[in-house]
Amino acid sequence: MIEFNRFVLENGLRVLVHEDPSTPLAVVNIMYDVGSKDEDPAQTGFAHLFEHLMFGGSVHIPDYDEPLQRAGGENNAYTTNDLTNYYCSLPAENIETAFWLESDRMLSLAFSEKSLEVQRKVVCEEFKEHYINKPYGDVWQKMRDLAYKVHPYQWMTIGKELSHVENAKISDVKNFFFKHYLPPNAVLVVAGKVKTAEVKQLAEKWFAGIPSGKKYIRSLPQEPQQKEARLLEIKADVPLDAFIKTWHMEARLHHGYYVADLIAEILGGGGSSRLYQALVKEKQLFSSLDCYHFGTIDAGLLAVEGKLVKGVKMEDVEKAVNEEIEKIKTSMVSEQELEKVKNKTESVIAFEDMSVMSRANSLALYELLGDPNLINTELEKYQSVTREDIKECSNKIFDPNNSNTIYYYSKN
Predict the structure, then answer these.
(1) Annotated domain spans of the chain
(2) For residues 314-326, average pLDDT
C-alpha cells in the first residue's frame, strides 16, 4: 500500500505528497496535462519543443540546471502524446531549490528569440537524426497517419513535419504556453524524505501566487470505428524487410485496456511468448519480433513489429502472424498461461514501485487520470481479467477490418 496525501491550492494546482523516510532524497515531479494530441494540426511538435524550452531559463533564473546542480540535484523530462513531465531529485534538505525553480518557470518562462532559436535547432536535429536519416525512422509517422484519420494521435510527439518547428514564432510559443502551462493543468507530486506539512507550506509560498488563468478544456475529435483493412507498402534503404501491423484498442481506463495489455504479453512478451517461439525460434521467419501497445490515455494501438530473415517473403510472415492470432481468437488460453502473464505484470508493477522517482511519476499520472489511488488498485484490474475476456477482446481487436499494415521493403 503506497500512502499519500493530497490537497489543492486555490489556483487549481493539485499537490500530492508521498512520505518515505527510508531515502535521504526528495523528488519533485510536475506533470502538465498537455501532450502532442493538444496541438494544432498545422503547428505540431510544440509540446516536445516546450519540454526543451522549459530548460532555457525563466525571468528570474537564467539557467535552470546550474542552481539545481549546486543543490546536489539532477533533472530530466519527457513528452508523450498525452502529457509532459518534468522531474528532479535532490537531497531532501535542499528541496526548496526545486520549488523555487519549478514555480518560476511556471509563472514566467523567459521567451527570448535566442532561447527559441537554440532549442528549435536541437529539436530539428533530433527530428533529422531519429526520424529522417535513421533506417526505419519514418515507420511510426507513416503508421500513425495510416491508422488515425481524425484523432491527433495521427502524428508523433516530435511533430508531423519538420517545418512546423522550423517555422515556430515567439508569438505561437507564447500562446501555447499560456494555454497549457497553468496551475489547474498541472499536478505537483513531492515524494521522499518530506513531511506533508512542510510541502504544504512550500507549495503555498512558491505556487499559490501564480494566477490560475483560463482552464484548458480538451475537446478532441474521436476516431471513428475502422471499417476496412489498410495497407501501405514502402521501399527504403534499410538492411532488412520489416512487417508492422496495428489494431485499434480500448482507452486507458477501460477494462479492455487491461485485457489488451495481457494479450500483448501473451503474444509478444519476451522469449517465451507465442509469437517469438513460433515465428522466430521454430519457423525462423523473423530475426526479431515484438508485440506491444503504446499505453495511451485515449484509444490506442496494439502493434506487432518485426524484421524478416533475409529471403523470407512478406506474404509468408503475414500468413504466419495471422495463424498465431487466429489461435488466440478461437482457443481459450490456459489458466497457467494467463496466470504467468498476470504474475509478470505484478512483478513489473512491484519493481516500478521500488523507486521513489517511479512512485512520484505514477501518482502524477493517476491523478491526471482522475484517481491517484489507482497506484494501489490497478493490479486488481489485471487480476480480474478472465480467459473469456482474453478470447472476447482478441476477437474484437483482431478483426481484419480493424487492422493497419505496413510492408517495409529493403531496396537492397
Answers:
(1) 5-207, 230-410
(2) 97
* pLDDT per position as a tens digit, 133-173: 999 999 999 999 999 999 999 999 999 999 999 999 989 98
Contact 64, 77 (CB under 8 A): no
pLDDT digit string (tens) for 23-74? 999 999 999 999 999 999 999 999 999 888 888 888 888 888 999 999 999 9
Is domain 230-410 in CATH 3.30.830.10, yes or no? Answer: yes
Q: What is the CATH number of domain 5-207?
A: 3.30.830.10
- The string of pLDDT tens digits covering residues 76-104 is 999 999 999 999 999 999 999 999 999 99
Cell output for 332: 481459450
Task: Give the span between the Cα atoms of 405 and 139, in whole angstroms.
Answer: 11
What pTM was estimated for this model as a whole?
Answer: 0.95
Domains 5-207 and 230-410 share a fold: yes
